[in-house]
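S1.2 Input.
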Amino acid sequence: LERVGYTLKAFPSAEQALEEIRDGETVDAVVSDVRMPGMDGYELLRNVRAERPNLPFLLVTAYADVEDAVSALQEGADDYLTKPVQMQELRKRVQLQLDRRVLSDENRRLRQRLEKHFGFEGIVGHSPAMEELIDRLKVVAPTRSTVLIVGESGTGKELVANALHENSTRSDGPFVAINCGAIPGEILESELFGHEKGAFTGAHQRRIGLIERASGGTLFLDEISELSTDLQVKLLRVLEERSIVRVGDSTQIPVDFRLVAATNRNLEKWVAEGRFRQDLFYRLKVVTLTIPPLRERRGDIPLFAQHFLETFNTELDRQVRGVHPAVLNALKRHSWPGNVRELRNLFETMVLFSHSDEIVLEDLPSDYRTAVEDVPQIESAVWQPRPMAEIEREAILRTVDHTGGHRAKAAELLGIGLRTLQRKLKDYGVISGKNGVDEGDE
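S1.3 Output.
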């Protein structure tokens, strides 16, 4: 092993080898005999697994029989060798285990990145609406229920769909996504259902459709409102029969997938207008998840700012460490017609072209600065020390006044719960009723 570049440490006993591993020494693989005085190879293996579960471990046995080999593997060994050991075989087996470990470590890192991006923690937001959304996600994700995600363009519907998949029992299966509004209807049918060779002009070979590819996993149909009436009927049949027929064929092919659909339309209105099938609509809305637009959760903008800073510092190899408060104030006043997608694109541009370690007003495009420039500047006053309770009271009352008495919005801006705000207002004598809720309070 040393001849081909490995660094070796040899020990006369399993006890000494285990002590070395427990001391935190860097060890990439263990090769051990089975029969030794004191602790044998199996006991060493069990102790190493307790300390380092993923450490490659090869056992060497003098008995070349199936029973001993099976015992070694059942005890948790990654591989075994029989005496007399062939040197080329030893090198080959050790290298194979080290390669597997590198691949396993890389897969684990990728899985952690995937979970961070598509797990529940990847959904940014502490506003009441987002906390409710995440709570519902945690309940519905492990089930087989069909989910309809509703939200404006750019709110992150595909991110939520991915989180549903990654936290489901189907996470090891495929996640197949398609934007129904981005593909012409005559092509979309073939994309969804697949086709046989010769089914139409240009069909030179069989094509497996996306529904079939999603079997065992999740099918995400974004902008499902854009499906033609004919495709709506065919999708409804798939959901009822759990089978498909490829274009140009008559064979029923069983499929097993979880459907997650999304739309930025008011499907109930479309059903009333005859633009979307009522029976399909009720098939889709078993569970409905609504993503609020960014303008209704401006209190989450600082969280998004930090998230996008970290994202684009990594992607663009930059070192922007923060965002000036004046920038955050400007962003909170923007109307955000493009929602989170617009904010994400803005931060990519600002991080890329920033000339310092902080995003400042000069980094903002002019149309984003206009909102802050139009706000009258309040003249500074001499600071007078006051009790914290008095400062809190003033902040709460001014914020409620700023929102025109809209308590839910005021609570979001203040970063407190609605009931907490109502209790404070009751204490201040502003409102009355149980828990500070007037009869007409929403």
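S1.4 Remarks. DSSP finds 18 helices and 14 strands in the chain.
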